[in-house]
Amino acid sequence: MLYNAAEPEFYDLIDADAVLEPISVGHKVTEGIMWWPQNDCLIFSDMGVGKVYKWNPATYETTVIKFPSNISNGNFIDREGRIVTCEHATSSITRMEPDGRYMKTLASHYDGKELNSPNDIIVDSRGRIWFTDPVYGRTSKVAGIAREPEMGFQGVYCIDESGKLILARSDFEQPNGLCMEIGEETMLVNDTPRQEIRRFKVEEDCTLSGGEVVCKVGGRPDGTKIDAQGNIFTTATGDVFVFDKNGRKLGEIHVPGTCRNFCFGGPDRSELYFACETIYRLKTKTQGAEFFK
Questions:
Q1: What is the DSSP code (8-state) at residue 82?
Q2: pTM strictly above 0.85
């Protein structure tokens, strides 16, 4: 069964008859899936082969746009159409211009120590870059390089408008997916081992206050996004769980394979794209939240 509705509102978001469409096959450990609105296409990382791909919806063609990728994980598109990326192998945040010809390292160390392994990343409307920094890229045999961490904690960071790296919060076991909420006054952050999603207030100095648990997921949450109504979608132990903005579970989408991340995309942001061994597309009855206008 593809869907499991915990509440009837689930079917206000997902059509009960909607089916998954496989659009790109033959991958290993996909992550960092993101719609690229300036180019009307999809991008995603495959950490198992060290590549970042682009999928063209007009031709259904999948092409490599970054190789070697330094085991790229999370990706995000900023307002200028540039790709900002978390690299496991280099413990760095990098940025690639839309033409793919220029790569810049934005962060690799904090307080003189190498970052753990930046994992997921977002850019807000002011151009500030936020990312999580667990140790998975130093412990995973398929998506990292074994090495001892230097930091001693796992945090969320912000690269502010001036390019300064700021530690926003550090009281996590393993921070993973993160997402701004509508209005950008609050942020959601997954803590994977604790199986919870926390809500933080975004302070002007790029720190995060508060941190109450919004969702006890009942699985290991990875990537998180919200729709235009503020509903929370998160991958957890391979599937996608859906909660309302108050953390009430609405239902589940059972995706074949292991789904580590996903995104809203398409011209009107009404399609869900799932990063598994196969990339799948699902038409929805909702839309992903729009942050850049």
A1: P
A2: yes
